[in-house]
Amino acid sequence: MLEPGNNDQLPPIPGKRYFTIGEVSDLCEVKPHVLRYWEQEFPMLDPVKRRGNRRYYQRQDVLLIRQIRSLLYDQGFTIGGARQRLTGEDAKEEATQIRQLVTQTIAELEDVLNVLKV
């Protein structure tokens, strides 16, 4: 899971469903060609591809990219070590990530509800 201290350095993730590779590049402070390379190295990173082979990343993809970035750049893992760390994560860390996604989704739905009440 992404360390809370590292999360403060990156911009907040907007409440959108899909993000282009350029948007993800800005959100994660990683160049687009690096993102494309990471797709080859990390099988769990698999954005939706639509017409023209354009990539569209979802929120969980952005969180995963931030986690990969943290492992490689901040914690000094190699690509192989980061891949092994991500595939060998215990259920507790996965549950924490799922809990964060549910909390963010609830907050977004509450925001939508407030907008609709107006």
Please write out the topology.
Layout: H1 4-7, H2 21-28, H3 32-41, E1 48-50, E2 54-56, H4 59-74, H5 79-87, H6 91-117
Antiparallel strand pairs: 1-2
Could you give the order of the helices and strands? HHHEEHHH
- Please report the number of helical segments: 6
Q: What characterizes the major β-sheet?
A: 2 strands, antiparallel
| Class by SSE composition | mainly alpha
Query: How much of the sequence is in beta strands?
Result: 5-15%
Shape: globular
Q: Helical percent range? A: 55-70%
Indicate the CATH architecture. Orthogonal Bundle
Over the alpha carbons, how many angstroms does the gyration radius reach?
Answer: 15 Å
Question: Could you say how many structural domains there are in total?
Answer: 1
- Top-tier CATH class: Mainly Alpha
